[in-house]
Amino acid sequence: MRTFPVAGDDGVHRAFEIEHVYISRGALMRLLAGIEGVSCVRRPRREDRGAGARVEFKHRDIEFQVWEPYGDSSRYWIGPKENLILRDPSQLREVEEAFRRYRPPRLLKILGDLVSLNFKGLLRVD
Question: pLDDT tens-digit profile of 11-23?
């Protein structure tokens, strides 16, 4: 899966984004649960879901979240909760690498490419 780095004003890599059309929430939660060092994968409280939060998890005791900006974005933002600056950037890289390795089921990939108008992706065979 393709990831999109998100840097702060200082240029530090603080989060990343993924196109959510390629992964269901259940698959997202299973993927996160399978990452070494990840725990407490859960859906957020009801009031946080209205603010765009989709999944919360801990990675090596730091709170992270999967957030959908504006509640209707084509991407999920994945990074530390409260937009913390990580002391150890490798934590974010470990999570991001798991998403890069993820390959959606073929039918979901085709549908995702159609919905996102990714015609190059339709022609590519992984």
Answer: 778 899 998 888 9
* pLDDT of the residue at 32: 96
DSSP string covering 22-59? GS-HHHHHHHHHTSTTEEEEEPPPHHHHHTTEEEEEEE
The contacts of residue 28 (CB under 8 Å, 6+ apart) are 20, 54, 55, 66, 76
Q: Tens digit of pLDDT for each residue in 65-84?
A: 998 877 667 889 999 987 66
- Nearest-5° Cα angle at 49, 12 to 85: 15
Determine the length of the chain: 126
- Starting at the edge strand that comes first in sequence, how are the strands of the sheet with 38-42 ordered? 3-7, 13-19, 75-80, 62-67, 53-59, 38-42
